[in-house]
Amino acid sequence: MKHELPKLSYKYDALEPYIDAKTMEIHHIKHHQTYIDKLNDAIHKPEGMKFHDMQVDELLKNINSIPESIKPAIRNHGGGHANHSLFWQLMTPNVKDREAKGKVVEAIKKQFNSLEDFKKQFSDAATNRFGSGWAWLVLNNKKLEIISTSNQDSPLMENKIPLLGLDVWEHAYYLKYQNKRADYIAAWWNVVNWKKFNELYEKAI
């Protein structure tokens, strides 16, 4: 199979003023496309052909069975593809879908005491990730857990199910927010697709 760039369900300017159109465009058609191109290159090498028909999530779950010669490419570019494919879905211009409700909110309140405490802990994980990487809420052995990963590492490589992910690579925010990562994180909460977030949680439990 050939991995392809997923289409967005909204226009590049749909998340303004929180996420600017130019960043969305470059992030989608330049950065994400590059991850896909390099992933496809890796699985079309002779040692990658046995993994040719695997979905990207399966590739990452089986990262330890990937030959060493192509493992870095699968990890970095497969991770970049999977992470971004989820990231786009977890943002929305639809005001109704931005409402924090559903079973995932109930579980968050139980695990983190309140929605506000959860947001603070998640934001802290994103803010304090040194260099490039991601902040995540994952399901780990049926328990909610906030983690951060470096570069394009995916929670799937640790058998954790990603439910909410925030890209804190500079390319995700630098055009609008420059070095003010915390401002970007605060703005991002305004476009979180809680409906999709809840669907992922209900599917995972």
Textual characterization of the structure:
By secondary structure, the protein is mainly alpha-helical. It has 2 domains: 21-89, Fe,Mn superoxide dismutase (SOD) domain (Helix Hairpins), CATH 1.10.287.990; 96-204, Iron/manganese superoxide dismutase, C-terminal domain (minor pseudopilin epsh fold, 3-Layer(bab) Sandwich), CATH 3.55.40. Helices cover 46% and strands 11% of the residues. It has helices at 21-43, 56-61, 71-89, 103-112, 115-127, 174-177, 181-188, 194-204; strands at residues 133-140, 143-150, 161-167. The chain has a 3-stranded antiparallel sheet with strand order 2-1-3, with helices on both faces. Strand 1 and strand 2 (143-150) form a beta hairpin. Helix 1 runs antiparallel to helix 3 (71-89). The longest helix is centred in the N-terminal third of the chain and has 23 residues, at 21-43.
CATH superfamily of the largest domain: Iron/manganese superoxide dismutase, C-terminal domain
Given helix and strand content, the structural type is mainly alpha
Task: Give me the count of strands.
Answer: 3
Fill in the CATH topology of the largest domain: minor pseudopilin epsh fold
| Top CATH class of the largest domain | Alpha Beta
The domain count comes to 2
Query: Helix segment count?
Result: 8
What about the largest sheet? Answer: 3 strands, antiparallel
Would you identify the regions where 5 or more consecutive residues have pLDDT less than 50? Answer: none
Helix content: 40-55%
Q: For the largest beta sheet, what order do the strands appear in spatially?
A: 2-1-3
Note the beta-strand portion: 5-15%
**Global geometry:** globular
Mean pLDDT reading = 97
- The span between the termini is 29 Å
